[in-house]
Write a structure and sequence with these properties.
This is Acyltransferase family protein. Keywords: Acyltransferase, Membrane, Transferase, Transmembrane, Transmembrane helix. GO terms for molecular function: acyltransferase activity. InterPro entries: Acyl_transf_3_dom, Nod_factor_acetyltransferase. It comes from Streptomyces lunalinharesii. The chain is mainly alpha-helical. It is 60% helix and 0% strand. The chain has one domain. The N and C termini lie far apart (53 Å).
Length: 391
């Protein structure tokens, strides 16, 4: 995979006010260019300041992370019959969502309770959560022949947990910005959650709390931290680290409960003693950070053919869930050829191709009504902005 040697570009305001995938929609981006100048060319904006371009590194990272998410879901039913598939699954699950969450935290650094940012949180996270939770429920009723499956917004089904988690994390961002030791506090909360089975399943709070440290890590990062992991020495060191992780995963596959990587249950619910929740939470946090650093080290920093797809990763994430679950409901994995080495390779390529297509601009235009609704009718007009326009 090609890498970039250039330093990180400045983080743009549009990237700071990011959606769940860490990037604004094409509609908002285009609207911003029309109002402020042509950001892509770097020409001065209307207020005299030079326009800033999006940083290709983060769009590349989001796209590659969402491809790994889709591939991981494709490998899941293959684990019982293939130790290699199980090893790949464990390795990818150790860092793909942490990477995505760290990026989301990084682009949440400027979040506050300002009216426009709260509106974007509602329209870009809360509304898609409600719509897709309902859509997934009806899909399960139809595809799984389960007409009695209830609609509930308190217990996220399948992929929608990330949206409710991001909603909660972002609302708490101002708190993490004022505490003295945010990461130790977040780790303490994650450890306590891992040994507290009484938390229950409402709002998938186990995941919200156990993944919280990664979001807080993102909040504390600065551009220079990403420059550190993209140095040549780190890229070279990342190769044996990932190779070692794969070897360890191959050894651990038949010995370890992969549910630890989901962070959705306490240690007791996984049949382990309570103290193992403390050990596993801290150990997996450290391992995940190392693998995330290796992942970032090899993410290209220049514009590539998939850079533009980084703005559509939330589309790919939510939409590919219908195919991932449908493949189980319709018993696609009963085909023997899928369990052969060549079948597994082909399935991996298909998963990567499908999620790539779901991130493309045409798909974004079709589903923008659900992912990024304007909903101006739902909010009170901004009195300050209106007065400024009148002047």
């Amino acid at each position: 995979m090609a890498t970039a040697t250039a330093t990180l570009a400045p983080v743009t305001p549009s990237q700071k006010d990011a959606d769940a995938g860490g990037a604004p929609s094409g509609r908002r981006h285009a609207k911003g260019r029309a109002a402020r100048g042509t950001a892509a060319t770097g020409r001065p904006t209307g207020d005299g300041a030079p326009a800033k371009t999006r940083d290709a590194f983060f769009d590349n990272a989001k796209y590659l992370a969402i491809v790994l998410v889709a591939m991981g879901h494709a490998w899941e039913p293959l684990r019982d019959g293939s130790r290699s598939a199980a090893a790949l699954y464990i390795t990818v699950y150790a860092f793909h969502m942490p990477a995505f969450i760290i990026i989301s935290g990084y682009f949440s650094r400027s979040f506050d309770m300002r009216k426009d940012r709260l509106q974007r949180l509602i329209t870009g996270v809360a509304v898609p959560y409600v719509l897709f939770e309902v859509a997934y429920t009806f899909f399960k009723r139809w595809a799984d022949d389960d007409p009695g499956y209830p609609i509930t917004l308190l217990q996220p089904w399948y992929l929608t947990w990330f949206l409710i988690a991001l909603f909660i994390w972002r609302l708490t961002t101002p708190l993490w910005k004022i505490v003295r030791w945010p990461l130790p506090l977040a780790l303490t909360i994650a450890v306590l959650a891992a040994v507290s089975p009484e938390i229950g399943d409402d709002l998938n709070l186990q995941r919200v709390l156990q993944f919280l440290p990664f979001f807080v890590v993102g909040l504390t990062l600065r551009p220079e931290h990403f420059q550190l992991v993209r140095r040549r020495a780190v890229r070279i060191a990342a190769l044996p680290v990932v190779a070692g992780a794969l070897v360890f995963a191959y050894w651990a596959a038949p010995r370890m409960n992969a549910a630890w990587f989901y962070h959705r249950d306490s240690a007791q619910e996984l049949g382990a003693p309570w103290w193992s929740g403390v050990v596993m939470t801290l150990a997996m946090f450290g391992c995940s950070l190392v693998l995330v650093a290796c992942f970032f080290a090899w993410v290209p920093g220049r514009r590539t053919w998939f850079t533009a797809l980084g703005a559509g990763t939330l589309y790919g994430y939510l939409l590919h869930g219908f195919l991932a679950k449908g493949s189980r409901f319709w018993h696609w994995y009963d085909n023997d050829w899928l369990h052969t080495p060549w079948g597994q390779v082909l399935l991996t390529l298909i998963a990567g191709t499908l999620v790539t297509l779901l991130c493309t601009p045409p798909v974004q235009r079709i589903f923008r009504f659900a992912m990024e609704p304007k909903m101006t009718w739902a909010f009170k007009p901004d009195a300050v902005g209106t007065a400024r326009q009148r002047r």
